[in-house]
Design goal:
CATH architecture of the largest domain: Roll
Number of domains: 2
Structural class: alpha+beta
Number of helices: 12
Radius of gyration: 24 Å
Distance between the termini: 36 Å
Shape: globular
CATH class of the largest domain: Mainly Beta
Length: about 500
Amino acid sequence: MMSGDMTSDHLADWLTQWHDVRELVRVSAAVDAVHEIAAITDRLRSDQGGPAVLFDHVLGQTIPVVTNLLGSPRRLAAALGVGSLDGLSQRLDDWLSLTLPRGKLDTWKLLPRLAELSQWPPTLEKTGLCQQVVKLGRDVNLAELPALTMWPGDAAPTITWGQLHTQSPSGDVTTAESGADTRRRVCVVPLEVRGRDGLLIHGDENSELWSLLVEYGSRGQQMPVAVVLGGDPLTSVASWAPLPGRTDPLVFAGFLRNRPVELVAARSIPLTVPASAEIVFEGFVDPQAAYESSGPISRETGFFGPRESLPVMRVTAITHRANPVFPAMVPGAAPSESHWLDRACERLLLPLARLWIPELVEWRWPFAGANRHVVFASIRKTYAQQARKVMHALWSLPRAATAKMLVVVDDDVDVRDENAVWSSVAAHADPARDLVLWDGPADPLDHATALRGVGRKLGLDATRKLPSEAGAARVPQPLRWTAEIEQRLQARWPEFGL
């Protein structure tokens, strides 16, 4: 059994615990960072998540690599201190019930301050283990780090598990109440290695990161960026989650950890970074500099991303622990590590979605839709056309804004059971009445759209129709045994010899 009460900031401690309970395997044979590590990791994954894999000896490198770190619901739940991922929703729901004025019209205004209301703002330390080794200027050489070339067809090595930290050039640095930095922005995007000191940022133009880059450019300033690898896995989870509003991700990480994230000042840029990180890349992005053409790289959808022109981060410093471990996320078809992280975020964000959509009972982002293209939602239906209202509400949420298919069912349908969802569609959806088509923003990684980032969305109302809805009078009663028959059958079952 794995313990969910670890309090260590050190990745090595987590790896030791997971190895002790056979959630991590070690490969001592020499392995190649080009394709081989990714192929081994991909072969070990399973429908319930494969083990984390620690590669002690990477050819031509001195730093070991760990893959599939959080690629299992068991490890994710243990790291988050819950018995299962479903427990995340209950934990946040319990906290919200004590924090927010449920039922008030201004509840939505408080959402950007959710994490700030936590008692765990980051703390600034004088020193950090992430700076035991510091390389500046000409000593910077990205080739000295074991970035992986994942799949045949990848144009270059990529850093896939880097938490990209930056900040808005405007706004308050901290809030008086909590110490949360309202300017801090953290996300996880692939970074394509270009030479000794270049990292191509594979974001998209609809993201907040791109908006910040435009804002820095309008001010004639360079954007400071830090890429953080490793540390407490919960900081990685908080960085992955699409949090609402101006929520400080590191305060949210403190909420998940039940203790503050310790920060240290970066050595060459005006940012702070988690002190417990394994490796940190510091640098700047010049918004005025020419973008560079990217090669195709493998993405979490299970396909290659498009070639595009992207901004370049120029690395000014590399800092790391004395004996660091390099974490890498291997993209692939579901379920891989990114999909289990998305599943954890699905559970974390459900209570927040219910604040906007009180009739929402449950939702599921199925692996078949790469955890991003398709959403199943169940609702407590009380009035006609309510499913349509829920569809548009879901499409207004950041997490669901680019989903191209929403299926809404009644609250007695288990949305975790895909067969049950499609059975409800077959039983209750009339294409002439229950389809909603809407044009809007699309997932930039959805290669099925005619134009990148723009597409048509499909909503399916698979709820039972009320008398006020067209066709409701023709809805028959489903076949069900009465309670009396069930009880009699239960009492006599031993007689039947079955």
